Each structure stands twice: as C-alpha cells, then as structure tokens.
UniProtKB/TrEMBL annotation:
Taxonomic superkingdom: Bacteria
Protein name as catalogued: Formamidopyrimidine-DNA glycosylase
Native species: Christiangramia fulva
Pfam families referenced in this protein's UniProt entry, alphabetically: Fapy_DNA_glyco, H2TH, zf-FPG_IleRS
Keywords carried by this UniProt record: DNA damage, DNA repair, DNA-binding, Glycosidase, Hydrolase, Lyase, Metal-binding, Multifunctional enzyme, Zinc, Zinc-finger
InterPro entries named in the record: FPG_cat, FPG_N, H2TH_FPG, Ribosomal_uS13-like_H2TH, Znf_DNA_glyclase/AP_lyase, Znf_FPG/IleRS
Gene Ontology BP, a term: base-excision repair
Family statement drawn from the similarity comment of this UniProt entry: Belongs to the FPG family.
Length: 260
DNA sequence: ATTCTTGTTGAATG
DNA sequence: GCATTCAACAAGAA
C-alpha cells in the first residue's frame, strides 16, 4: 500500500533507471487502469523522453520534453520494474519500451493503480484538488488547516485534499508516536497536541522513507512493527487494539492513546 | 463461499 | 453551498 515514503522510493528507482531515454512505444495490457485513452497517451509520449519525475502525495508525475506529463497512482499494489527482459513480469499493466530496448513495467496485481495524462504538474495537482505535500508542510500551515475542522484527527490526516501523502498505515503511526487517539476530535486537541502531531508527521515520514531507501527495518518503537490486535505496545504495558475510523482498520494502544 | 483489505470518487447527509 | 461521512469499486488473500 504505497504511501508517500514508498512513492519516494519509486521516484528514486525511476530516476536512476528510466530517465533520458527515447520512448519507442507503449503497450497497454490492461486498459482498466487508464484514465486517458491509449491513443492519447501514445501520441503524447511517442519519441519523447522522460526528463524528471516529481512526487505529489501518493502520485508520481513524469515530466517529458513534450507538453504532457504522465502520472501514476499505485493503488494498493503498484510498483515499477525496469529491465531489458523481453518477458514482462506477472501483472504488468503498462509497458514503456525505450529505444535502447529497455523497458519500464508498471506492475499492479490488483489493478487499483491509475495512469493519467495531464498538462503539467501544477495542473494535475489542481485538477485533483490535492493539498500540500506532507513533506513540504510548515507548522503554521498545518495549524491553519486544522482550524475550525470537525471530525476525527485521523480522517483529516488521511484526507488528500488537506495534506497529500499520508494513508491508513502512517496516519496510525503518526498518532501512535504522538500518543493521541485516532478518534480524537480535532476541536478538542490542544495547541501542544497539534504541534506534537505536526512534529511526528515529519519524523515518521522521514524515518520510513529512509528505511525504504535502505531496505532496512523500522525501529521496534514503531506501531507499524506491532500492527496486530492484542500485540504488546512497544512504549507502555498496554495492548494494541483494532477499531474503525471512517471505515478504515485503525490500530492504536489503549494505554498510551486516550480518546479526547 | 464469504469476508476483509485499500484510496479515490461521488453521492448522501447534516 | 459547505463540511463531513459513507458506499461503491476493483482484485486477491485467507
């Protein structure tokens, strides 16, 4: 379930493999993921090169030397594989062939991923009404975004229109590290608590991104390592519990995360 | 076989 | 209208 840190990793992978190569053709083995027609995508990318990529929230935007950009969303199971192999990996849903005979495969077993053609990075961001990227968020802006909001803190953290990049897993982690119950209503949180949440957004995302890049493990003090009902809390003598917040499975510790 | 999982979208609600 | 909540959707694992 790629959230911001995983997409950052995909960006690094693509940047080191698939930039600055002429595109020969594109294959579309699975039309369902396409948000624009294969013809339009092929036309926009034929003989183009990817110049750079930019991440916004959970999306990866490919900028070309032409007018259009190609945008990927990874759904639950999407990823890239770059190789010179003729045989596509299982569940390849879109294949970009470069003129040097290498290929970039968009592999997505559950077909929850999406591919868009857009006029540019800013256009795409606006079209999808995406909020500020979680890595670019300043404390002042975060405080203002929460001002006057109703509802639970977890829903707000996951709302891509408010902050882009945080999903189910890492919203739980941020709130666990902040010792705040996911169902806490935003209105009841103190300035200190909101400040703590802000601090942990940066901390958690940076930490997770680093471990993804290195292929290492998260610290034992992370909820992510103990995300199962009845597990011992790594920070107090409580147990991990499971509940639902806006329809999503939500793990928290009943000992150190008290509801407000 | 059925239930559960996910993020986004758009509909329903207040 | 607005903010907020919720169901639908897709495929696969258990």
């Amino acid at each position: 379930m790629p959230e911001l840190p995983e997409v950052s990793y995909f960006k690094k992978y693509v940047d080191s493999t698939a930039l600055h190569k002429k595109i020969a053709k594109i294959e579309f083995p699975e039309k369902k993921i396409l948000q624009d027609s294969p013809q339009a995508i092929s036309r926009a990318l034929k003989d183009a090169e990817f110049k750079s990529t930019r991440r916004i929230g959970k999306y990866l935007v490919f900028e070309t030397d032409q007018d259009k950009v190609l945008v990927f969303h990874f759904g639950m199971t999407g990823k890239f594989e770059y190789s010179h192999e003729a045989e596509p990996p299982d569940h390849s849903r879109l294949i970009i062939h470069f003129k040097d005979n290498s290929k970039l495969f968009f592999v997505c077993p559950r077909k929850f991923g999406k591919v868009y053609l857009a006029n540019g990075f800013e256009d795409f961001k606006k079209e999808h009404k995406l909020g500020t990227d979680a890595m670019d968020l300043k404390k002042k802006e975060f405080m203002e975004l929460l001002d006057g909001k109703k509802g639970s803190i977890k829903s707000a953290l996951m709302d891509q229109h408010i902050i882009a990049g945080i999903g189910n897993l890492y919203s739980d982690e941020v709130l666990f590290q902040s010792k705040i119950h996911p169902k806490s209503s935003i209105a009841k949180l103190s300035e200190e608590e909101k400040g703590e949440i802000y601090k942990n957004i940066g901390k958690v995302l940076e930490r997770v991104t680093k471990t993804r890049m290195e292929g290492s493990k998260l610290p034992d003090s992370y909820l992510t390592r103990h995300r199962e009902e009845g597990e011992d809390c790594p920070s107090c003598d409580g147990k991990i519990k499971l509940t639902k917040v806006s329809g999503r499975s939500t793990y928290y510790c009943s000992g150190c995360q008290k509801e407000k």
